[in-house]
Amino acid sequence: MSALRLLLVEDVPAAFAACVRAAQRRSGGRLRLAASGGTGGRACMDALVAGGLDWAGIELFQVDERCVARDSPDSNARSLLEALGPHRDELAGFHAMDCAAGAAAYGAQLAAAGALDLVQLGVGPDGHTASLFPRSPALDAPEEVLVAESRDPSGRNPHDRLTLTYGALGRARLCLVTVFGADKHDVLARLAAGDDLPAARLRGENTAWLVDPPAAQGLATVPVPPALLAEEPA
Q: What is the pLDDT of residue 1?
């Protein structure tokens, strides 16, 4: 398995926001964007809001969701909508995951929409990404299944979940894995060393890893390629 290509930036959420803006300009204004939950996903969404975007061209999807009430503090949809503030009403569409409707229903929405243009992912301390946890059956979902039910077998991450699968992530035009902060150094070092963790399966031509100095301390990194921030197609 090839080594991770870690793209070093000073401010990961700001760099993520710049990549989204560039991707939207390259696409002519329309963008199918999928956002993750958790503190990292919220930080990236906050940076996107602060940096400005043509929200009318954005169709927003969820990478994963906890099966809780929509008004629960643990709801990823609630966190996304709180970050968006008044921009939520400007979106071309917000496609919230609904555990009651089930994984197949959200998978059908994705299939109808077409390939996602850009996906924001994070990495947990156990190496999970989206809600694809170590030893979870969702890791082995068939390629054609786009959304799966998931649960952390260790119990460290509570709640049943819905999550995009590797099949869905592999169809995306670009997956940006955002890893920042000193608390992510150990798991990033394990991934760079080739440990068999869920996030390690993201290695592919459509995946870019944005990392900051505290997370990447002592690891081999490269600058962000200009093409990632280019406004026009190469």
A: 44
